[in-house]
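Wed. Picked up where I left off yesterday with DASH complex subunit SPC19. The coffee machine is broken again, so keeping this brief.
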Amino acid sequence: MADSLASSVASLRSSIHLLDSSIDILDSGVNDFPRLTKVLQTTRHFELLPEPTLQEAQQALLDEISPSIAHLLSVASNHVERLARREDSLKAKCELQEGRMSDKQRSSAANRAGSASAVRPDPSASSSTSDASAKAIQLRRLVQKKERLKYAVDRLELQNRQKERELRKSMAVQ
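Structure written out below (tokens, as returned):
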């Protein structure tokens, strides 16, 4: 009986040893499970939606953004038109100022020429020379008057064109 018990104990010890080695093998395999679950876990990088749902979302976004875009476009176009009108008015003002400057230069040159001839009278001149100089002075005055009137007409024409442009633009805006 001791012999059969000894063989039973030996068989039991070998079974325990086999179970211990199996537990060690299982433990080394199970230790890595948290990492394996994370590695093997499926991640959805892209969500798949049906096409009608996608089209509805696009239409909703378009409906939400369209009024804002239209408003911004109208504000921008109004600002561009305002800047164009300002540019035109500044150009007209520049042309007007250039006309004034050229008329001032012409009149000052004529005045200098007139004063130079008036300063040097010839003492030996006869009455015909004085008549000729009087006519020359009168002619210069008439030329200056003509230039002043021409300038006034040019200025009025420029102002008229500018007002017509402003009127056309205001009518186009409405």
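Quick read: The helical segments are 2-30, 33-40, 51-119, 127-173.
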